[in-house]
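Progress against Task 2.4 (sequence-to-structure conversion) is shown through the following example record, which the project officer requested during the mid-term review.
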Amino acid sequence: MGPHGGSAGDARGQRAAEAGGAAVTLRLVALPICEYVLKVEAENPGRQIAVIVPELVERHWYHYPLHNKRAEILKWLILLKGNERIVLINVPWYIKA
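Structure tokens generated for the chain above:
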């Protein structure tokens, strides 16, 4: 058992999740969305599929590395697995910081 009542495997998984933020983002956010987009594309063979991806826009350049890159990971995954019928639309999302 782990220190908080869970199994030792749970504790290792938690440490891995904390260490690999991109891996967690890929598994929890990007993969399910990508799989859904590919499913919709397969179910609608005569149509183009548009995916609107909000892009976080920072006020200062030095804030940019601080935030997760979910949008970039999602776009690359769809570009690699998808085809020419899937259209990606980037929409800037400004935060007041």
